[in-house]
Amino acid sequence: APGFNLYAGSTAHPVTNAINATPTVTTGEKYKEYTYTFDLSSGSYRYFTIANDKVGAIYVKSVLITLK
Questions:
Q1: Which residues of 35-61 are buried (b: 16+ CB within 10 A; e: fewer)?
Q2: Cα-flanking dihedrals φ and ψ of residue 6, to 5°?
Q3: What is the rounded distance in angstroms from the CA atom of residue 64 to the CA atom of residue 56?
Q4: What's this model's pTM, rounded to 2 decimal places?
Q5: 33 CB-near residues (< 8 Å, 6+ apart)
Q6: CA distances from 27 to 17, 19, 61 (A)
Q7: How confident is the model over 41-64, as a mean pLDDT?
Q8: What digits encode the pLDDT tens for the residues 8-41?
Q9: What pLDDT score does 1 carry?
Q10: DSSP tag of 44
Q11: CA–CA separation, 53 vs 7, rounded Å?
């Protein structure tokens, strides 16, 4: 499980509506790389917050936002 939560909402800096992720794992020679996909299409969200509010560190390599 990720060491963070992603929250989405209609006001800036949402912290109550957690969105579940679809994970994929790539195993390298010395590490594992986790990719989490969050689908926010179920609501009319304008804002999101990535909160490091669980045990562990968070290292973000990139964030890709696709608008449809």
A1: eeeeeeeeeeeeebbeeeeeeeeeeee
A2: -115, 125
A3: 23
A4: 0.77
A5: 25, 26, 27
A6: 31, 25, 16
A7: 87
A8: 999 999 999 999 988 899 998 888 888 889 999 8
A9: 63
A10: T
A11: 11
d(CA 18, CA 6): 6
Q: In what order do the strands lie in the sheet with 5-9?
A: 18-19, 5-9, 47-51
Cα→Cα distances 58→12, 41, 42, 51, Å:
21, 24, 26, 9
Distance from C-alpha of 9 to C-alpha of 47, rounded to nearest angstrom: 6
Q: What are the φ and ψ backbone dihedral angles of 42, each rounded to 5 degrees?
A: -75, -10
* Site of tokens 């299409």: 41
C-alpha to C-alpha distances, 50 to 4, 13, 27, 29, 30, nearest whole angstrom: 7, 9, 24, 28, 27
